[in-house]
C-alpha cells in the first residue's frame, strides 16, 4: 500500500509533514510527498498530469494499491492524473479541491480571473507581497495562531521559490477545466473541504464531490483552505480509515 501526496501552489511537500507523519504512524502506510517543481518545473502546465502519471507508474509497486492525494492545485492535478493511471489507482483523496478554479458564467463560485492575472503581473517585482497575501488567505480570520506559525516555520523558505514556476502554477489554475473528468472516475474518493475556505469556495468542493460517482464529502466547519496544518486532528482518523477501506477493497477484489 502506498499513498502519494501532491502539494498546492506556492508551497512544497513540507506542508504535509504533520499529516503524513501521523498517518504513517497510525496506519503503517508509506506516504510519498514529492516536490512538484522537481518533476514539473521544465514542463508546460498542460503536460503536468501526464508527466506526473508517468512518474507515479515508475515508483508505485504494480502489485499494491495506490492512493493519490492532493491539496488545492495538487487536488486538481490528482484529479487530472487519475484517468491516466487506470487500474493502477485504487483511491483518491481531494483536500480543498475543485474541478475549475476560475469564475465564469458556468462556474460562478470560482475566483475572479483578474485577480490571478494581477498576481502574474506582480510576481516579477513583488513576489514576497503576492505570496504573503496568498498565505494570509490559507486560513480563516479566526486562525491567527496558525497563520503566525506558518509565517515563522514555512514561509521564509517558500518566499525563495522560482518565479517562473509560480507563474506557471497560476497559468495552470487559469486554464485548467476538469469538469468533464469526474463522471469517469470510479475509484473511491474522499473529499474534504473547509467551510471557511477563502481560496476555493466550499460550493466548488460540494459540486466536485457530487460529480464523482464514488465520493464522500467531509465539510470541516471551522477550517479554511489549509485544514490539516499545523494540526491534523480528526483528519488522521478519517483519512486513515479511508486508506484502510481502500486497501481492504483492493484485497477483496483480488
Summarize the structure.
The chain is 47% helix and 12% strand. With 254 residues, the protein is of the alpha/beta class. α9 links the parallel β5 (189-194) and β6 (215-220).
Can you walk through the features of this model?
With 254 residues, the chain is of the alpha/beta class. The protein contains 10 helices and 6 strands. It has a 6-stranded parallel β-sheet with strand order 2-1-3-4-5-6, sandwiched between helices. Helix 3 packs across helix 4. The protein is globular, with a radius of gyration of 17 Å.
Keywords:
single chain; 254 residues; alpha/beta; 6-stranded parallel sheet; 6 strands; 47% helix
Task: Summarize the helices and strands and which ones pair or pack.
Layout: E1 2-6, H1 17-27, E2 31-32, H2 36-40, H3 48-59, E3 66-71, H4 73-85, E4 91-95, H5 113-136, H6 144-153, H7 155-158, H8 163-175, E5 189-194, H9 202-211, E6 215-220, H10 235-252
Parallel strand pairs: 1-2, 1-3, 3-4, 4-5, 5-6
Helix pairs in contact: 1-10, 3-4, 5-8
| DSSP summary: helix tally | 10
Q: How do the helices and strands follow one another from N- to C-terminus?
A: EHEHHEHEHHHHEHEH
Unreliable stretches (pLDDT < 50, length at least 5) are: none
Distance between the termini: 14 Å
Report the helical percentage.
40-55%
Kindly state the mean pLDDT as a whole number?
A: 95
Number of strands: 6
Major sheet: arrangement of strands: 2-1-3-4-5-6
Structural category is: alpha/beta
From the alpha carbons, calculate the radius of gyration and give it in angstroms: 17 Å
Shape: globular
Tell me the fraction of residues in β-strands, as a range. Answer: 5-15%
What does the largest sheet look like?
Answer: 6 strands, parallel
